[in-house]
Amino acid sequence: MSNMFDEMMGNDKIAIFKDKKFLDHKYIPRKLPHRLEQVKLIAKYWIEALRNTSPTNITIYGKTGTGKTATAKYAMKELKESSNAKDVFIRTEYIRCTDYTTEYQVIVELCQRLGKNVPDLGWTKSQVMRAFKDIFRRNAFGKNMILIVILDEIDILLEKDGDGILYNLTRTDNVSIVSISNYIDFKKYIGPRVSSSLCDREIAFHPYNAQQLIDILEERAEMSFNENTYDNEVISLCAAFAARDEGDARYALNLLKTAGEIAFENENEKITPNNVHEAKDRIEHNTITDIIVNLPIQQQRILEALLDLTKKNEEITSGKLYDTYLEICKGDSGVSYRRIFDLINQLELLGILSTNTISKGRGKGRTNIISLQCDCNIIEDTLILL
């Protein structure tokens, strides 16, 4: 009896992919299309490390999928290669703040990576900080170690645990910080005393346009797919959808990869525009479902109220939404009218709904009109399962 995996490996008809890894947003290519300017800016500040001087702190911000993390990691790789040939002791450490959400966790992780035996639990914060600072007093070969710490999605850490991490790192000699955030206003979590010592330089990442996304996808597709399995129309369509979605390169790569997977599943010899449309529907469904499932119950109830009013084709004001929300709560304790605005703003940041403030005319004030930005069927199907 033949092995089904051997049969599939030998079936050239469905050999769409050459190597999928190049379509993963975490893959760092040999060059970064349309981000050379930002790479050079980071290098301009980091070059001080090659002169045995602690570099200026940097803040990188821009929307999801604009190349912030890839650019920082690319610069890390370049700096490491350059420092290997010079008489300097430089360490660069990348910390994803979705994985390490408190100051304690970050410092412990840095200690462990730098060779200091610090337990995950059981020590006080001051003990951990002493251990961290002690690393800089015991340098290899007597050289001063310069540490560059990249804190990706730092807003998550700051919102949960305050600005203590920045306070302590900025007061440690030979430490340079790179803060990365999707939100330009994340510094609202930083107090005046920390802000003054941070003294950072800001680098903005703007969304990619359609042509820039085409350039990115063409390079990745050539490495990822076998010959004659796609054409320019597929690349252009993926880029157009992503450009419409705020220039998100991650989304463009995911769309192209998913379209290839659908072509493979259907045993097609080539990826078609229909595969791209199907991939878009699949990604949107999965993304929205994951978001809704993980929302707090009060926001799920707000969505249920919004869905109910949308089906009735009514103009949805915040007052009408709140009344419907209270009906759905059915006697359970709901949030206040004031609090509901915060929850609505969070849902807007997630792209599930939008709000538009309009004037009702002279003397009648202004009101918020709220509308869903996602497929109602997806939201309804998800809420039914909860």
Please explain how this structure is put together.
This protein is α/β, with parallel strands linked by helices. The chain has three domains: 36-205, Rossmann fold; 209-292, Helicase, Ruva Protein, domain 3 (Orthogonal Bundle), CATH 1.10.8; 295-385, Winged helix-like DNA-binding domain superfamily/Winged helix DNA-binding domain (Arc Repressor Mutant, subunit A). It is 50% helix and 12% strand. The chain has 16 helices and seven strands. It has helices at residues 4-9, 36-46, 68-84, 103-113, 125-135, 154-161, 164-170, 192-198, 210-224, 232-244, 249-265, 273-293, 297-311, 318-329, 337-349, 376-385, and strands at residues 58-62, 89-96, 145-152, 175-181, 201-205, 353-359, 366-372. A five-stranded parallel sheet has the order 2-3-4-1-5, sandwiched between helices. A two-stranded antiparallel sheet has the order 6-7. Helix 2 packs across helix 3 and helix 9 (210-224) crosses helix 11. The longest helix is centred in the C-terminal third of the chain and has 21 residues, at 273-293. The radius of gyration is 25 Å and the shape is globular. It starts with a helix and ends with a helix. The mean pLDDT is 90.
